[in-house]
Amino acid sequence: MKSDIQYIVIGGFNASGSSAVIDLLKEFKAVHDCDCEMRFICDPYGVKELEKSLTERWDVINSAAAMQDFWNMCKLGCRKKSYFPLAPYGMGYREKINPRFMQITEQYLDRLTDFKFLDQYFHFKSKAPYFRYVLDRCRYGVEFYTHGKIHVANRNIEPLRFSHPSKEKFYFETKRYFDKLFDVESLQKQHKKYIVLDQPLAPNDSDLVEKYFNNAKMIIVDRDPRDMFADIMFYSVLIDDRKNTEEHGKNFAKRQIALRENIRLNENIMKIYFEDLIYHYEETRNKVMEFLKIDPTSPCTQRKFLDPKKSKKNVESWKRIYKDYNHVIDTIAVELKDYLYKR
After folding, report:
1. Residue 34 confidence (pLDDT) above 60
2. Is residue 289 situated within a structural domain?
3. Which of 30, 216, 300, 308 has its CA 20 to 30 A from that of 58?
């Protein structure tokens, strides 16, 4: 069954307001939102790193490790997300995306696997728990020095995957993987036409949108960097450098410039400012609808999730902390003058 569902990839720069676009799109009944960040695609050990290990910097160990690391990352991500302090890490993928998340992931890896084999590389030994590592060494030592007469070595190790696909095969199987994972056939029957994906790719990886997804478009959300800095100061509890210095401002600016390197815009990649959703709501909303080819008569609950009047408090928030961070904010204004929002 051929799907005409369109993926909508949302990317931002950390505190750039990308969730506002997701809220805007959720108001349309034809849009399906998974309600979770797609960290298993862009983060270390994710799909992007899997591609590099299998097709760009390939060797037997790197490729086998990448397959195993991706599997482990997905397994952890399937745990239920909880804010209880003693709860283990989880992103809720099984609950939010697909109850068969791990089965579909295993099928994906199987299609990328040429064959499985047993071997003991230093990389995998180094990742074993200490007690398991010592026990295995003793077992192998006994078997080695008895020339195999005593069989005590641990042979219950997980087989490694030999995978050496072409770029074309990797992209084909990855598109197939996501179509199954997000169950596009089922969504089609529910009259859904769009799937919103939160942060699956960074803006400077926009070239991967068409390679990883069938029928996809990307919206990159930017924001005045002074407000982004203010949000980080407001909400982060892990900031260990709250000094009001020019150096702090320059370091923040370096990061923002690096995040915006190599961004490619074309007919399938759009960039908007968060502030435009507030100050020019109707105009910006219409631009988004036109870009995504959303029917203006499509059923929606406008302003249910994104109300520009309520969200206005998030604009020019840097002014609230200017007294305490004037040197940082002034430095940001100079170093990132081309990125400041101009109303």
Report:
1. yes
2. yes
3. 216
